[in-house]
Amino acid sequence: MNENFKFYAKLSAVSALKWVLIFIPGFLITLIFALITGFQSTDLVSPAGGHAGIAVVYVYLVALAMSNPCAFAILIGAPVFLTLYFLIANKVAIQTIIFGIWKNKGAHHVEPLVKNVVDRYAAKRDWTTKTMSQAKLRAGLLDANRKDPNTSGLTKRAINYAFKKIRLDETELNNESLTMGDVISVRVTHYISESTQPGFTAFWIVFVLQVVLFICSQVFFNR
Predict the structure, then answer these.
(1) In angstroms, rounded to a whole number, what is the distance separating the alpha carbons of residues 214 and 33?
(2) Which domain holds residue 165?
(3) Domain count, the chain
(4) Each residue's pLDDT tens digit, 185-211
(5) Spatial separation of the C-alpha atoms in residues 197 and 21, rounded to whole Å
(6) 15 class by beta-carbon count within 10 Å (0-12 exposed, 13-18 middle, 19+ buried)
(7) N or C: which end of the chain has fewer CB within 10 A?
């Protein structure tokens, strides 16, 4: 029990650290670039020129878009960049948890849990995949997993993530020689093994895009 606690505590800490290492640099670079761009472009419009309130902002943005489209993209795109960093950080954090569970516990731990959840859910219903809604099946499996008293919270998150991603509309689910639990548990473990290795590619794409926009904006400012 103590070993399990240490394992999940360490995994949670690593996941949280990766979240911080993605979102905080993304937040800072977005804020810094937006502030620099804002200060460099304050002379594009003057409030004394007969404009007031929202009109000043509108005139300023139009003037910025016409004179320096890259700077305009940095300012207007700041909320979008922050959202992307937030989503990427969440994805990497979740993938870190899933991959950590998979790497250290393995299919021998996850697959039986999935099979039990699916078989218990399927046993309470009299239908086949030909007559049921796939969305309803997915929602039912997610709910059954959340209510499973035999699975830890982090493992539930990993299984739920896989339930949301795997396909549930193929003919093997109606194979009479296999239970639905057999089929879905194999799909879950296969999906986890192929797709849960966390990566920073998306972060670097967004980061480099911002840097390129900033460099181009400086070229426009210094023309």
Answers:
(1) 7
(2) 2-221
(3) 1
(4) 888 877 877 777 888 999 999 999 999
(5) 17
(6) buried
(7) N
At 217, the amino acid letter reads S
Please name the residue that has the structure tokens 């057999």.
Answer: 182
Q: Name the one residue in this structure whose structure tokens are 């003037």.
A: 63
pLDDT tens for 112-163 read 888 888 888 877 765 554 455 677 788 888 888 888 887 777 778 878 888 8
pTM to 2 decimals? 0.66
